[in-house]
Amino acid sequence: MVGAIEVEVKAKAPEGAEEMIASLGATFLGVEHHHDLYFSSPERDMAKRDEALRLRIKEAGSFLTFKGPRLERETKSRREITLEVDDAIAAEEMLEAIGFSRAAEVRKSRAKYRLGHVTIALDDVEGLGSFIEVEALGGEDWAMEKEEVLAVLGRLGIVETIPQSYLELLEAGIEV
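Structure (tokenized):
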């Protein structure tokens, strides 16, 4: 995926979230287990730059993702570049060899659903609890995806969103 804009909103998962998602007609895609490793370096402090460099390890393989600074706060939209890596251990060794070190880890179980162009995820995050994420990928003109994501959120009856990433919540010790 090159040059895509990820448009995402996150909220605390309401009671009965699975039934709410099913009532929209979303298709259940399955459950994934994510072990996310985040990297930073003294020369490029990812948190200060509002960026993320993540190595995600899951059943379907390992993926290295760069997330650029947020483009706006309402939906946590940002440029995202992801590539599949054959060997997560070698990928981490490469990152360390060029000056990056592991800054944090996030583990979660994710139940994924598809509703048109939108992905809905129910995440159970170690140390944080349960969340719902609604996201879509768009190009340089991502206004339509933003409207779709916000519309799905509204159909779920969710008003209050969480602007922080799971990593930011864990690092700040915030209970939501």
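Helices lie at 17-23, 88-97, 143-155, 166-172. Strands lie at 4-12, 27-40, 52-58, 61-72, 77-85, 101-115, 118-125, 129-138.
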